[in-house]
Design a protein that fits this description.
With 108 residues, this protein is mostly helical. It has four helices and two strands; from the N terminus they run ααββαα. Helix 1 runs antiparallel to helix 2.
């Protein structure tokens, strides 16, 4: 994983400059941190009530916000939310579908 991060940082640094490379490296490190935290919570059987390991949707008036999986990139009903990373992510990344799975509203 460290080799991959170093390779990505080197490529981005050469192609776009050192400032962009640092930003890419920082966002990648944050994504890995969230992934590890999410796995630890899941292994312990604990919820994530503050959405610390995911991506929270933007505030839209008085409507409730959704907490999507961290790998989604954003939490909204964007065109490709159902197929993030080539997998079925409808109930993980599409805000309306995540909201429909709220406790007491259809979640198993």
């Amino acid at each position: 994983m460290v080799r991959l991060l170093a390779g990505v940082a080197l490529f981005v640094s050469v192609a776009f400059g050192p400032q962009v490379a640092e930003a890419v490296k920082a966002s990648r490190v944050e994504a890995v941190r969230k992934m590890v935290a999410a796995k630890n919570l899941a292994a312990a059987g604990l919820p994530d009530p503050t959405c610390a390991t995911g991506v929270i949707s933007l505030k839209d008036g008085d409507a409730p916000q959704a907490c999507c999986a961290g790998y989604c990139g954003e939490c909204s009903d964007y065109p490709t939310c159902a197929t993030v990373r080539g997998q079925n992510s409808t109930f993980a990344c599409c805000k309306s579908q995540v909201m429909s799975m709220e406790c007491g509203k259809g979640a198993p």
